[in-house]
Amino acid sequence: MDEVATKVIDILKKHMKEPRDDISLDTQLTDLKIESLDLAMIVFDIEDGFGIEIPYNANEEVEAFKTVGSVVDRVKSLIAAKQASAAKA
Amino acid sequence: MSQSKPGRRVVVTGLGVVTPIGTTVDEFWSGLKAGRSGVSALEGFPLDDLKILIAAQIKGFDPKQRLKHFKRDRIITLADRYSWFAATAADEAVRMSGLQLPEADPYRSACIIGSGAGGLVTFETAYRDLFIHNKRATHPLTLLRIIGSSAAAHVGIEFGVKGPTFATCSACSTATHAIGIARDYIRDNVVDVAIAGASESVINYGTMKAWQALHVLSPEGCFPFAKKRNGTVLAEGAGILVLESLEHAQARGATILAELCGYGMASDSQDMVKPTVEGPSVAMRDALADAGLKPEQIDYLNAHGTATMDNDINETKAIKEVFGDYAYKLPISSTKSMHGHPLGAGGGIEAVACIKAMHEGWVPPTIGLDEPGEGCDLDYIPNVGREKKVTYVMSNSFAFGGLNAVLVFGPPPA
């Protein structure tokens, strides 16, 4: 697993009541018993950790938050977008 | 307003406190017995240009240690400090009561835990982050930490309370109103059990500046009724009771600590800071009438006693108005001389002091009272507490805005 994935999983574990070590990219977030308040805190930590902003509304089902892998992909694309816009500037 | 009406009798079966002189009822009582002051040098945040440099802060409080056994409320340790204090005091009170919560019918229990101001420390931290440190966002829990009903909600979740759950807010009378309302709900058969009181934790730079601007804080200490008094001292903490209908407590064989036999409230409706004699007098009279007691039956009065110029003279006048000649014989003290002024939590902490006084046959002193102030000529139990048989007690709470609330406690019904 790459650096982004490892860091995302560490953040997930930090917010799980019973952290487990078998989290893979395919793991569903619902299987981790992550609820909406936990998700808000996870998003906050990811944003802080990677210096990005994740557009997210707790009232909507978000495709990007289905599995660990989809979160990691979303983070990577936001990092890439940020780097691209920084390069342009 | 007269509140006497028949209804169920209401008793106290649990007590819980978090104060600067003790974070359990036993420690708190030892602090009162020793006449210990909880006032110390202000610390925990940059003092910058503050002129008032003392407060009665709770030092070394570890929520992880005190609340680690909480099961239903998963985020209590991430809550604001004021919710930690409420949860800790409620936990102690519930344990003391021996109640197994949730109740079989959880809708027959209430959780009324007020706060004068809610999570002000969280508020300041969040605004510093946004406006000074240019952070992009506040912590996701900021809103939940700040709201003044979060302590009630946290405690209600942990103990599975599904009946009336909310906060009261009436500045320094907050806890007393919460306990009074809970009493009424039980008396009127809305619920059988209630966790009631208040919690406060507002000591930060902005709050100190705001109080400083009102010029009512002492730079030296909290000396109620003393000539040298020059203002109050901000404190923090929580005071919470478990109340039950008498039948409910008897049916489960609970140890009954006291009966909450009188509650009175009245508003001055006159001025935000200048109290009337009438408002506090009416509240005290109503509490006595509600309890069916004559003034002479009160053995100890825990005064609001804030050590401000206005309160102490005014409260003394109101006590004379209600108690007549007996006012001079009635032992009165302000325990704020020891635990400081915990604002909304005051009435809860002082209710615990009153009930302990009944049990221990000992009335706590007003410390720092070397020479009484002008217009302060009653028996304020100066400096040293005394042994005394205490059957009925009165606890006064008089708040900014002229919001007065008074409780009377008596012995467990035979």
TrEMBL record, chain A:
InterPro entries noted in UniProt: ACP-like_sf (IPR036736), PP-bd_ACP (IPR009081)
Domain of life: Bacteria
Gene3D superfamilies, per the entry: ACP-like (1.10.1200.10)
Pfam families: PP-binding
Domain Carrier: 2-79
Protein name per its UniProtKB record: Phosphopantetheine-binding protein
The organism of origin for this protein: Hyphomicrobium denitrificans (strain ATCC 51888 / DSM 1869 / NCIMB 11706 / TK 0415)
